[in-house]
Amino acid sequence: MPENCSPLNAALCATEPTPPEDPAAPAPSVTVTLRDIASFIPAKPGNEMEPGGWAVEDLPANFVAEASAQVVSGTLLGRPADVRFTPVAFRWRHSDGGVVESGAPGETWAALGQREFTPTGTSHVYAESGEYTVTLEAVLRAEYRFGGSGWRSIAGTLAVAGDPQRVLVGEFDTVLTNGDCNANPSGPGC
């Protein structure tokens, strides 16, 4: 058979695959690839940041992905099917050249029990003031099933990018104080 022969490219194959007549029948004994599920489109991940849309030069900004497992229905190999996409990793690409990778979507400082501007596993520090963008990619594992059968894994992963987010970075000077930070460590700016 030709190298590009697959059930979705039947014209390239010596013979067309014949789908089973019973929709509840077991899945065909073919290998389903990421290319075969190209028509199953997962949702773009959301990207939240703390503080919202701005950051302070030389202090961590915290990023939190919004992505979860999702099932997309459609037709696969000529049969009704479901494809489940599950996030397994996250990658934030910053326009200053920084890349942050994590196996978890991150959490807010409050959920982590941390003070604002403390480092997290998904934070990034901008070294200079300016306007930047950050784009989140969710790395997804895919599985498929026919007619309610068990889920079958598809080899490989795919990265789905969210919309770029604008980040304004500036310098910060504490102006209002209630004593120095040694005398009042919970005061503004401490």
Automatic annotation (TrEMBL):
InterPro entries: PKD_dom (IPR000601). It comes from the Bacteria. Residues 17-26 have a biased composition (Pro residues). Residues 1-28 are annotated as: Disordered. Residues 86-138 form the PKD domain. This is PKD domain-containing protein. It comes from Agromyces hippuratus.
